[in-house]
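Supplementary notes (optional reading)

For those who missed the lab, this is the record we used. Protein: UDP-N-acetylmuramoyl-tripeptide--D-alanyl-D-alanine ligase. Length: 121 residues.
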Amino acid sequence: MKMQVAEIAKAVQAVNAEQAWPDVNVTGVAFDSRKLQAGDLFIPLMGANDGHQYIQSAIEHGAVATLWASDHADDVPEDLPVIMVADTLTALQQLGQYYLQKLIRKSWLLRVVMVKQRRRI
């Protein structure tokens, strides 16, 4: 996965206006800060623990941006781009759907190009 933060913000219908996120690239997503890899988008989920508590760990592991629930607006990190959403789980689902559609479009385009190439032979 390779997307820019601004594209992710649009895909998940961020409630904050696109800020100065010049060319910040995301190479993956993680909702467990212990398994996060450098370049990932951190997605804090609510469960037995509040994932928002682990933002510092995510930053230390190399998170380049985070989704952030708007009801946690008092604790917004300032160390990286924050994509504010109403609900992080819903935003994760929206991002997954968006990315899948993007892959389908690329796959379809690749097939069209391959068919056109075959016809030339």
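If you only remember one thing from this example: The chain has one domain: 3-120.
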